[in-house]
């Protein structure tokens, strides 16, 4: 079994990140190029598909395949982790096609793309829990799925969006818990209490909300607030 050092993994990451779809794409009729791009997509050859689709998009921006090419690019960019390009293409498509019949899918893909931005390659490899990392992409994804459910409640993607929103809610609650714990460790008692109570109010039915009660309890003890300690201990008993 091969063993990889951190430096070799980083080098591999950089090599993959520098890969480009800028290889020469033959100047063939659009129908032929589109068929080749579909074959690349079906085989999971994302870089080749992206090169072919980008060529179609630049050579025939108003052609018969223009809308479908953009939709295919959104998917290929997502699968290839070209997330910034995916979001830019989603924005462009939405602006140019505000009433498109696949707009529910586009909103769904925007949610998936924002979710993917919350991933971290090195964290995935080493199974590191980083609940304290910036949750802004998670908030964006939650808003995307919420928008999908509001605008297209009968969409094929509505049920999956609900499931993902539940997971995202837990992710945001974990971030608030990590923040409350940070304040506790820094002996910022009032800040720890405030963040714990905000978490309990915003995400009441989460494991993080229950865990935050212990942080709140410790902070109250440090402040010598006996009545608040007693109330929090009672809450902990009720939420076991």
TrEMBL record:
Keyword flag Phosphoprotein: no
Gene Ontology BP annotations: Gram-negative-bacterium-type cell outer membrane assembly; protein insertion into membrane
GO CC entries: Bam protein complex
SUPFAM superfamilies registered for this protein in UniProt: TPR-like
Domain Outer membrane lipoprotein BamD-like: start-end pairs: 27-232
Keyword annotations: Cell outer membrane, Lipoprotein, Membrane, Palmitate, Signal
Topology of the protein relative to the lipid bilayer: Lipid-anchor
Location of this chain's protein in the cell: Cell outer membrane
Quaternary data: Part of the Bam complex.
Role, per record: Part of the outer membrane protein assembly complex, which is involved in assembly and insertion of beta-barrel proteins into the outer membrane.
PANTHER family linked to this entry: OUTER MEMBRANE PROTEIN ASSEMBLY FACTOR BAMD, SOLUBLE LYTIC MUREIN TRANSGLYCOSYLASE-RELATED
Similarity-based family: Belongs to the BamD family.
HAMAP family per record: OM_assembly_BamD (MF_00922)
Name recorded for this polypeptide: Outer membrane protein assembly factor BamD
Source organism of this protein record: Vibrio amylolyticus
Classification of source organism: Bacteria, Pseudomonadati, Pseudomonadota, Gammaproteobacteria, Vibrionales
């Amino acid at each position: 079994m091969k063993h990889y050092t951190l430096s070799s993994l980083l080098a591999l990451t950089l090599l993959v990140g520098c890969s480009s779809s800028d290889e020469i794409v033959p100047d063939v009729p659009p129908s032929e190029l589109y068929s080749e791009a579909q074959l690349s997509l079906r085989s999971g050859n994302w870089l080749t598909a992206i090169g072919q689709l980008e060529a179609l998009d630049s050579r025939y921006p108003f052609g018969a395949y223009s809308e479908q090419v953009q939709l295919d690019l959104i998917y290929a960019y997502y699968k290839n982790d070209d997330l910034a390009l995916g979001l830019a293409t989603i924005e462009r498509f939405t602006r140019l096609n505000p009433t498109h019949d696949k707009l529910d899918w586009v909103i769904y893909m925007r949610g998936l793309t924002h979710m993917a931005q919350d991933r971290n390659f090195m964290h995935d490899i080493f199974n590191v829990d980083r609940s304290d990392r910036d949750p802004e992409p998670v908030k964006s994804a939650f808003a995307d799925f919420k928008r999908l459910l509001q605008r297209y409640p009968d969409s094929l993607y509505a049920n999956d969006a609900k499931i993902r929103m539940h997971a995202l809610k837990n992710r945001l609650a974990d971030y608030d818990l990590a923040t409350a714990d940070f304040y506790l460790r820094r002996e910022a008692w009032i800040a720890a209490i405030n963040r714990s109570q905000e978490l309990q109010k915003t995400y009441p039915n989460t494991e993080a909300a229950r865990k935050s009660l212990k942080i709140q309890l410790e902070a109250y003890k440090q402040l010598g607030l006996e009545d608040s300690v007693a109330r929090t201990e009672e809450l902990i008993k009720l939420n076991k």
